[in-house]
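Q: How would the structure tokens look for this protein?
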Amino acid sequence: MPLIESAAAILMLWAVIGYLLGSIPFGLVLTRAMGLGNLREIGSGNIGTTNVLRTGSKAAAAATLILDGGKGAAAVLLARFLAGEDAAQLAGLAAFLGHCFPVWLRFKGGKGVATFLGLMLALAWPVGIACCLTWIATAAVSRISSLSALVAALAAPLWAYLMNAPASIALAILLAAIVFWRHGANISRLLTGTEPRIGQK
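A: Here is the predicted structure in token form.
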């Protein structure tokens, strides 16, 4: 964890800004704007990239991935530039929570994987790249999005340690714990061999 140097009011402000950025449901907005139907009634009903892909639109899925990752990165980078590293980490965590629990959707959001990867890239880009490559490598072998997310999240604290980013280790552990919690149903299906593969409806 970085040293807490900002005033409590500043940290609270960036927590709110981060949450509001993170709570923008890009997957839901894009699918509606592109006439792809109600994402809540497709596949798992989740608002993230994997479920957007189930609409059959790779363009919508790619845009959702970029925007969901971008909002996490934006929260971190803005807070770092305008306040400091302590505010950046808090804003990143808040953006992640905003995606998972958006007030606009009665706190029923996504699982936060793209936002997690985006904010890790902004916090410590070598660690973020390593997490992304971990996701890609696992997906290439397993073709299972949830497993890729779990492996990438589990590896994040290790990558932070190995790549000399100690200030990011505690946040990486916390985010990984939330990712695992949000994937509880997926973990159950993985254990029973019934988890759908990427692109499977």
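Residues 58-82 form the longest helix (25 residues).

The chain has ten helices and no strands.

Upvote if useful.
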